[in-house]
Structure to design on (211 residues):
């Protein structure tokens, strides 16, 4: 059985940063339900990486949602749609990841769609330095076959997920639990690089699962 080892939030950021390959562009994933606030962790990691002199940006998965006509085709709270087609993972691969790979254009798109206005974000391409890091952050990123270099999963128990999910988003809890349960059953099939799994019920007292 894997065991959990407590780690400070600052040390966790530093540990995740050590997984990022040096000397080239790379893409990392911070996976977690919105209740885990993976974007905040991504920005804290980005600040640390930037403090070392390496360029680093964060891409929020919610800036790559599909248009409302597709997200709400069956209803605004359709659980299957949320798990399978709410976010545009093909666009993430095409506009963020592939451009940073050898032979890519060297420019990535930081935002594709404005979720609130339901319009194009009209973002311009951003130049990537030779050692640039882009951190993708959001729910259900793992298990999508994305070509990334390192991952961290901020895992919430069912109880913590219910406590930390906003009232208007409580309908996402069951599809999230289903998705991560199925992901655990496929454990070991991810082709991503070095990975961390973190119990995140108490972000001030996280614990890393040791293999």
């Amino acid at each position: 059985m894997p065991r959990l080892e407590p780690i400070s939030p600052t040390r966790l950021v530093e540990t995740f940063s050590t997984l990022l390959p040096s000397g080239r562009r790379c893409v990392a994933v911070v996976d977690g339900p919105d209740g885990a606030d993976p974007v905040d962790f991504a920005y804290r990691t980005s600040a640390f990486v930037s403090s070392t002199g390496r360029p680093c940006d964060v891409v929020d998965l919610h800036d790559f949602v599909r248009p409302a006509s597709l997200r709400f085709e069956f209803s605004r709270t359709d659980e299957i749609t949320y798990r399978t087609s709410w976010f545009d993972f093909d666009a993430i691969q095409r506009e963020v990841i592939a451009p940073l790979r050898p032979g890519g254009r060297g420019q990535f798109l930081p935002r594709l769609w404005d979720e609130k206005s339901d319009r194009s974000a009209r973002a311009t391409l951003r130049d990537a330095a030779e050692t640039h890091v882009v951190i993708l952050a959001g729910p259900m990123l793992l298990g999508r076959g994305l070509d990334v270099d390192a991952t961290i999963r901020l895992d919430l128990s069912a109880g913590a997920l219910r406590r930390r999910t906003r009232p208007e988003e409580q309908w996402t809890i069951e599809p999230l639990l289903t998705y991560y349960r199925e992901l655990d059953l496929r454990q070991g099939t991810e082709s991503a690089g070095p990975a961390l799994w973190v119990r995140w019920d108490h972000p001030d007292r996280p614990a890393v699962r040791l293999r």
User: Anything to note?
Assistant: Residues 99 and 106 are 5 Å apart (CA to CA). The chain is about 30% helix and 20% strand. The first strand starts at residue 3 and ends at 6. The mean pLDDT is 94.
